[in-house]
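Notebook p. 47: complex prediction with adenosine-5'-triphosphate.
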Amino acid sequence: MDKTLTMAPSVTSATSRLEAGPQGKRPRKVLSSRNIIVYGLLGLAALYYLLPLYVMVVTSLKGMPEIRLGNIFSPPMEITFEPWVKAWAEACTGLNCDGLSRGFWNSVRITIPSVIVSIAIASVNGYALANWRFKGSEVFFTILIVGAFIPYQVMIYPIVIVLREMGLYGTIYGLILVHSIFGMPIQTLLFRNYFVSLPEELFKAARIDGAGFWQIYFRIMLPMSLPIFVVSMILQTTGIWNDFLFGVVFTRPDTYPMTVQLNNIVNSVQGVKEYNVNMAATLLTGAVPLIVYFISGRLFVRGIAAGAVKG
Amino acid sequence: MAAHSQPGRPNQLFRNLNSKIASIPMILTAVVIFLGGTIWTVTYSFTNSKLLPRLNFVGFEQYERLWDTPRWIVSIQNLATYGCLSLIFSLTIGFLLAALMDQKIRFENTFRTIFLYPFALSFIVTGLVWQWLLNPEFGVQSVVRSLGWTSFTFDPLYNSDIVIYGILLAALWQGTGLVMCLMLAGLRGIDEDIWKAARVDGIPMWKTYLFIVIPMMRPVFVTTLVLITSGIVRVYDLVVAQTSGGPGIASDVPAKYVYDYMFFAQNLGQGFAASSMMLLAIAIVIIPWAYLEFGGRKRG
Amino acid sequence: MNANVSINKSNSVSIRELSLSFGSVTVLENLNLDIRDGEFLVLLGSSGCGKSTLLNCIAGLLEPTEGQIFIKDKNVTWEEPKDRGIGMVFQSYALYPQMTVEKNLSFGLRVAKLPKDEIDRRVARAAGILQIEPLLKRKPAELSGGQRQRVAIGRALVRDVDVFLFDEPLSNLDAKLRSELRVEIKRLHQSLKNTMIYVTHDQIEALTLADRIAIMKSGVIQQLDDPQTIYNRPRNKFVAGFIGSPSMNFLKGELADEGGKPVFKTNGVTFSLAGYETSQPLTAGRKVTLGVRPEHIQVDGDIAGEVHEAVVEIEEPMGADNLLWLKYAGHTMSVRIGGARRYAPGTKVRLAFDMTLASLFDAETEDRI
Ligand SMILES: Nc1ncnc2c1ncn2[C@@H]1O[C@H](COP(=O)(O)OP(=O)(O)OP(=O)(O)O)[C@@H](O)[C@H]1O
Ligand SMILES: [Mg+2]
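Predicted complex, structure tokens below:
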């Protein structure tokens, strides 16, 4: 089973190759027919990927009358930010009409501790698995990785029971725990593979120097692992922010994360549909992961390649 | 050799004690949640639990009822259609895009950023955007009609027969970027000399791809396949956001079926049985893969 | 088996019936080794024979499956590495990248919570010995390979230990630096006089540094002797072939009796064995292999005794030496002669074999006769 574990690093190393630059045939002339086809196809594909974002933005900037008259692709004749304000502060879910802001802050309150807790746990796990194996450690790890493939639906109800017993069901703390649990396989894999890739002799030297488990972790390993912490943070932040299923199962309406609240706003059956507000709300919810994505650039690519197991 | 030649050997339990303590969260998660939770759910799927889980065994009754429920059959059919098409299209599109990106193009980073950004978005956001784009009153259909083609019909989200394709469209938008990235990494991992050799031998490019490069990328394809598949079986948020399973139950999927039976219909036994079926579906894909990848080489 | 092992008081490190296996792979089996106080012992062997594994066992980084390890007469088999009184130097230097040289040197002392002035004193002493004072404020990345390895040695030095373990410390360095640092390590050993166990697969390092060499093959020590004995009286064919470059010439044949004197015959050619020292009877008919080092064959000039004639096939001038590859009696042989003496291919030469320095091995057991 040991090989599962090396699957992701092979992907990671492939990513660094990916960053090394293209290798295929080189183009000969600038305006060859081949180039026209290549760039033409890429351009077309880019259009398909960009169009939804464009439509979201223009829709969110139009007034409802303009939406009813015009077509969704046309730019707004009159730009209005009212839908954004409404989405943020006034949109209704059920009885509350205080907009997405509540969901936003809930998501912040959920994401930050979840990211910290899950990374702290996973990095220590990965370190233990890489450098301090004990009898059975690989077995537990294998269960963990296989568990990453088990549909969440299979495990949700037992977790509900456990959390209820602990008195955490419906609270943000319960959700933080759930995120830490389900983030564990991939995060542990990420850290384990990273620590395995560090020279083993460094660890041996530290042991000869008399450092113990925690001393080596904090004084030798941590200072060397900044990149992997960043990658893992990107992965967890977007992953937890984007979660819907756990949010809807493990929290109550007043602690719903942003995604759940967004879905409730947009898909609520009452009232007149305000498409511009809906799109503004959708953009607001997508903003955090998008910002993380655009800022992190290649690190994100590295992260998803390494963490692709999450599926 | 006698065991007594090991005097002073410390108790094995206390060896590496810190490591064991630090691994408690992992051990608990693996054993209690993943293993225990799975066993628990499978066990209770053989009971007639309704509102609360009860150990009242009824054999395969829940499963029989499950396969007699039209809604479940629809879910499974949807999953099969969606799954097959999603596999085929995301692998094809992902590979084609990767091959295009590998042509020493300029602005490679820009293109990659564009193709991959939807992957950063949640399924909820994805579903809502595409719900809007496919809105027959205002979306693509109305735009084409306003251009003069008045009989043009494209309303997948309101037509039970094709609603699953509407969801597929959104899913491909969200996920092909990732496949492209994995494929590109695979392509970049191929020795450049292969290309030189093929060129020296005068093999046309498409043949090189088809007969040399793709077979060499088998591991990447397999990994990607496993990833896509485990994602497919879980598909839930996207459907909830885009169609809420509608029209009617036309776009229902197993994950949604499970959720509804567990938390709304208060028929836990059905939910457990359905989720156990999901587990079975995953197992059918994962076990042969795990066996092929690891079983052959290590012991067996 | 008797668990009561007596250990010699003058031994610094003693290894008793040590076995280690990774799962089903047995790397070390029933290994016994005594290293004297202040001795420089070199472990030499081909890649994967278990040298590092043995060293890691001594250091306490690997747990033996069976057996015991004594350091300074103390059973340390289950001790933590830090409590064994050892320092270790690795091939890849293993310097902590985020710490300066000074912090690298003092890390172990800081972990042990030694007083600050004591730490400073020890670091200054080690830096002085290794002449790395100007580097103390730098990070490992800003050092050359040779400097890094000095720092790594310094890290073992500050620990004030009895036993130094080196795992191929010079393998990552280029040839020139390697010979420089080799001399330095020898000097260090002469001034510190502590026990050193040194793993390498470089014969020159082994022969120049060692008081004794242990030649290992698949986890078993083949021969443990001083360099001279290893070179001239290899205990078996493996050791004979392993040491020396180019490797010893091996001629397969059998023993015979000619006029009451033992001779070696191969492909119709007879070699007199006069001068060969052995305690075993050289019975006629026994299948053996004759081993002669390239430098123990005389070519032309005023050669005495039995003379053989061969044809030069290839000449490899190597500066100080000249290596001739000859065809003789169906065997290809190499001969080392002075660099100034040149022979064109095809030349006929006369050879004399120095049987006092030759080796005979049993064809079956491959042990020295
Ligand atoms: N952790 C391990 N698990 C399984 N086998 C191992 C492990 N470490 C080493 N081995 C095996 O043990 C044998 C001895 O390894 P060792 O590192 O001691 O060799 P070595 O003599 O130091 O070689 P080199 O000169 O290449 O450093 C090798 O065959 C190796 O494959
Ligand atoms: Mg080694």
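Notes: DSSP finds 14 helices and no strands in chain B. Residues 258 and 275 of chain B are 6 Å apart (CA to CA).
Next step: compare against the earlier run before touching the bench.
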